Structure formats: structure tokens, C-alpha cells
Amino acid sequence: MSTETLTVTDNRTGQTYELPISDGTIRGIDLRQIKVSDGDFGLMSYDPAFMNTASCRSAVTFIDGDEGILEYRGYPIEVLAERSSYLEVAYLLIHGELPTQAQLEIWTAEITNHTFVHEAFKNFMQGFRHDAHPMGMLMSSVGALSAFYPEAKDIVDPQIRRLQTVRLLAKMPTLAAFSLRHMRGQPYVYPDNELSYSGNFLSMMYRMSELKYQPDPRIERALDILFILHADHEQNCSTSAVRSVGSAGGDPYSAMAAGVAALYGPSHGGANEAVLKMLRRIERVENVPAFIEGVKAGNERLMGFGHRIYKNYDPRATIIKKAVDDVFEVTGKNPLLDVATELEKIALEDDYFVSRKLYPNVDFYSGLMYEALGLPVEMFPVMFAIGRASGWMAQWLEMSIDGEQKISRPRQIYTGGRGLDYVDIAARG
Ligand code: CMC
Predict the structure, then answer these.
(1) What's the predicted TM-score (pTM) here?
(2) Is the dihedral of CA 358, 362, 366, 367 positive or negative?
């Protein structure tokens, strides 16, 4: 008999059960046989926030939080950030292996050919007020793609799935740049298909009256690295949202819009926005100790610190720090960098942060880079979403062909009343 089992004794009944262990997990559903009586529903596990529950098998991204390891399809993030382009990494995530030169050229051409959006998107964008948050605009416009491509709902057809993958990756920067232009009251800039993925995005954000926008190659590369670092992060909040919505069998754009929605929150992709607001509030290095004391007293969190999975260091933070320096070479140093450096220094020595294993995460420095690029804080989570789109899509594609998956449907522990007597409204106290 296999030793890969877990023996459980139910002390309520004295009965013993043997549950198979596979890949270091037991199946939640195996607990259901543990009952006190025939009418009993069976034992469930209670796991708010999925702290210890695997929801799928996935071959997309590997993370070892204790060791600070992040790999896409088995390749360390450090190597990909140094040697690959974002589109190459997107290909890797989606197809499972690195492209040959010829495959990369076809993939790049396909994505480039789909960067334009339907003209009606301009009217759609125009419907937003001037103060609309670009993340709200991105969420809505990604969702709107579902209405523009109704054939996308035919998700059993691999060709249809592939076409939507290309469309989504191609149009994310366009929709993101349109959101920024709308926010600024500037005319939308059409894609320039002679530029790289990141170069074209910079052009759509910044081009004004010049006939041709020439991105600085150092900024272009730094942005590409940023997209690579954000491309996937296994079953995080937004990816789980994508998989959960996708599990109902709708079109991928609806699932991607759910991903953007989840990413919007300050505990997730909105953290980079919160970091910059925090740095601006601290303003000067002298104010750092008082701020840290406030954090330790529980008044607020040190944004950009801590991670559910990384409990040693976030490998993305190390890479981003270097990319930030490269951008500052072009733009000049952001004075808030000194505040950030001091915060990091104090926090890494302080027992409060050390004992809780709180380290800088990817968002601690990304905001400084975005600000150096002249982006308003509202755009920061949008930048995250552009990179993450490839991961969401890779995970959605993996889910769509996973025979073990069904519609997502957690259980609950009901804590409300039962069978109450209905009281007529006039008689309610
Ligand atoms: N500042 C101060 N204390 C913190 C922080 C922080 N940033 N993060 C966690 N703690 C404390 C928390 O108060 C708790 O202390 P205690 O045990 O005394 O109650 C302990 O550390 C454990 O915190 P937790 O909330 O149980 O940890 P979690 O795994 O649920 O939260 C997190 C992870 C990322 C939501 C959290 O660390 C946080 O809110 N960080 C700030 C927001 C942020 O930077 N988010 C970006 C995450 S990286 C981008 C991404 O992948 O989405």
C-alpha cells in the first residue's frame, strides 16, 4: 500500500479514514466522507482567503516564497528580465516554451497587426468624465472587447482562443494609453506599428505634434522589463478572479475585465499607487522615523512591503531597483528615491518588519519609475495590468483545457438565522 496517505481519526465517532496524498496535497472532497451520521453533509475545510488551498494544477509559474524564487515555465525571472523581450516572455507564458527566432517574428507581427481598436472605442472612452480613474476605464474597455468580438465566446475552438489572446495582448497598451489621454484631455494617438511593444505604448501615451515619436531605448527597455516582471505570479487575487469568472465558460474578455477589477485594489495592483502617495506624504528623509513608528503602532501599513508568498525577498524588487536606476539616468533622479531608500533601510533593520518577514515587494520601486516617466499615480496599476495580461491569458488558456476544472463554487459556513417568521412591514419595530 502506498505510504502517501494521511490517516485521520474523527474523535467524534472514533472512525479512522485514510486519505491519499498526491503532490503534497489531500483532496478537499475526500474530507466529505467524514461524517457523524448518514444525514451529515460531511467535513469541509474552512480556508478564508485560500491561505492553504490549491485551486488548480498549473505549469505556468513557479514561486518559492521562502527562497525568493520566481520562474515562468521553469525559466528564472532574472534571466528572462535580462535576456528576453516582453513579447518573447508573453509567448513563453502562453505557449509553454520559448519561441524560435521565426516563431517570435510571427508572434510579434501578429500582435503588432492587432494593436488598433475599433473607432467606436473613441466614443466609448468619451463617455467617461474627465476625472475617471484610468483603471476604471481600462476595466470597462477590456470588458467592452467582449461586445466587439462576440465570436470570442466560442471558447472551445482553439483558433478562436488564440485570436482573442493576440487581440487582448495587442490592444491592452492601446486601451491603457487611451485612458491616460482621456484623463489628460488629450487626443488619442493611434498605434505606431513600426515601434516595439513598449516603444509604441510610449508613443501612444506621449506623442503630441511630432510626426514620429522616438522612444529613448533605455526607457523602452526599462518598461519592457517592468512588463516582464509583472507578467505572471501564479494564483494571485486577480488571476484567481480571471480563473473564477472564466470557469463559468464566458468569453475571455469578461474574465480579463475581472482580472483588471481585482488588480485595482490597493492590496494588489493598486499598491504602487499607494506607495507613491505614501512617499509624497512622508516627503522628506527626516520624517521617515516618525512614519515607521506610526506603522509599528498599527496606524497604517508600509505600502510596498510584505507579500503573501514571499517571506524572504521578492526577486522582482531587486530587478526593478536596477531598472529604476536606468530610467533615472535619462530622466534625472526622483527626490522621493531618498525617502524610499531610507524607509527600506530602517524597515530592514527593525524587528517589527524582520520578525514578520516583511520585505520590499515589486511595487515599492515601480511607482518611482512611473513617476519619472511623467505618469500620474492613477496610471500605475494600469501599467501593472498591461504586463499581467499575458499571465491572465496563459492561466485562462490552461484552465480552458483542464478537464479537472469545473465552475468555481466555494462552500461557506452559514452564520445567519434560519426559518424566521415573516413579519408584515407595518408591524416591524
Ligand atoms: N506594513 C506593516 N505591517 C504589515 C504589512 C505592511 N505592509 N504587511 C503585513 N504587515 C503585518 C500585519 O499587520 C500582520 O501583523 P500582525 O501579525 O501583528 O497582525 C503581519 O504583518 C502579517 O500580515 P498579513 O496581513 O496577515 O499578511 P498577508 O499575507 O495577508 O498580506 C499583503 C500580504 C501584501 C496584503 C500585505 O503585506 C500588505 O498589505 N502589504 C502592503 C500592500 C502591498 O504592498 N501590496 C502589494 C503586494 S505585491 C504586488 C502583488 O503581487 O499584488
Answers:
(1) 0.93
(2) negative
